TrEMBL record:
Record's keyword terms, sorted: ATP-binding, Kinase, Nucleotide-binding, Transferase
Keyword ATP-binding (UniProt): yes
Keyword ATP-binding: yes
Organism, scientific name: Penicillium bovifimosum
Name the record gives this protein: Protein kinase domain protein
Biological process terms in GO annotation: intracellular signal transduction
Pfam families: Pkinase
Length: 339
């Protein structure tokens, strides 16, 4: 069986689309994440990122405690995730808007010419503290996120960070796949030569280093030159990184992450918080009434947001029973009329 695409969802505001999913805004505080119809395989494969993400949120929601810097998931269905809406969307456009790039014909990103404006260090300190707090939590669950970049870091109404997109999350110790320099460092020798190794605090902190670089420098490493895949691997494999000269505290932390200083993500979070405590500006968490939001999601499905079949499965048992009896009677009647 393939994925289920309800037409009713498409009537709602389309927020964004990543490689594998589309996001629709369905109430002022809720979005629905679903598979991209144009990219989904005909048959449902367990390895599809949305299915992996649903499995991750199931594990997350089974836990008693909550992490305020992981996006809240109100309802999981076999093909859909209902998530808390983040007013300021992802971190990425905030930075890309401040870059001047060479124009390119296909609408992609041209070579970086310059960064017009840099981000406030107090906000960077807040976001990197919140991100690593979330990653410490993910590590406690026995997982790695494996896809850390600015598009997967959302900002709520108070500009607090919420980590999202767990479509590549796996338990610690799996082979790191689908991630390349500058977010991963190839292994040059030994049994795992020419791979990016097993996911762990080593791989996760490397990606944190690159994300912190992006926030501090306003662009990805080596965005001002065009590099082939093998040159990316050579530079990062041989630990040839861009020069760090903007902020002593952040530069030290980027370097520590790139050089794999920390044995755990808990230690990354601890050290980062300690070193940025004098520069950070914090904002209050926005209260989310999860139970109420979950009820809203269920009511929307019941009213047909995801099509009649799912609507029926969300009806009370007596209604489903009544529906089955009516359906049966109609088909007996039709049969009778045809004979
Ligand atoms: N909860 C949300 N609130 C607001 N915008 C969101 C939300 N979730 C995703 N988005 C937007 O959609 C984009 C893609 O979402 P993501 O979950 O990363 O999908 P994909 O798995 O396809 O990468 C994000 O970069 C962001 O701009
Ligand atoms: Mg994404």
């Amino acid at each position: 069986m393939g994925f289920h695409y309800p037409d009713a969802l498409e009537k709602h505001n389309w927020v964004a689309g990543g490689l594998d999913a589309y996001i629709y805004h369905i109430t002022p505080t809720i979005v629905v994440k679903t598979v991209r119809p144009d990219r989904a395989p005909k048959e449902k494969a367990t390895g599809h990122p949305l299915l992996k993400e649903i499995a991750f949120f199931k594990r997350l929601n089974e836990r008693q405690d909550r992490c305020p810097h992981i996006i809240e998931c109100f309802l999981m269905l076999p093909d859909h995730l209902f998530l808390s809406y983040c007013t300021h969307k992802s971190l990425a456009p905030r930075f890309y808007e401040r870059q001047e790039r060479e124009p390119v014909k296909n609408g992609g990103l041209g070579r970086l010419i310059r960064v017009k404006e840099y981000e406030d260090p107090a906000l960077i300190a807040r976001w990197i503290q919140q991100l690593t707090y979330a990653l410490e939590y993910v590590e406690k669950m026995g997982f790695c996120h494996n896809d850390l970049h600015a598009s997967n870091c959302l900002l709520d109404g108070n500009f607090n960070l919420k980590l999202t997109d767990f479509g590549r999350a796996t338990t610690i110790g799996q082979m790191l796949e689908g991630v390349f320099p500058p977010r991963a460092k190839p292994i040059l020798a030994g049994p795992l030569q020419r791979t990016y190794g097993l996911c762990s605090a080593r791989t996760e902190q490397f990606a944190v280093g690159t994300l912190l670089y992006f926030m501090v420098y306003g662009h990805e490493p080596y965005d001002d030159v065009i590099l082939g895949a093998s040159e990316w691997d050579r530079r990062f494999g041989e630990m040839e990184f861009p020069e760090l000269n903007r902020n002593e505290v952040f530069d030290g932390l980027i370097s520590a992450c790139w050089y794999d200083v920390y044995p755990t993500m808990a230690l990354v979070a601890y050290d980062l918080k300690r070193k940025t405590k004098d520069m950070v500006s914090n904002a209050e968490d926005i209260f989310i009434d999860s139970k109420k939001e979950t009820k809203t999601c269920e009511a929307l499905v019941r009213r047909g947001l995801l099509g009649p079949e799912l609507a029926l499965s969300f009806q009370p048992a007596w209604r489903r029973y009544l529906h089955a009896i009516v359906k049966r009677s109609v088909s007996i009647w039709q049969c009778f009329l045809r004979c």
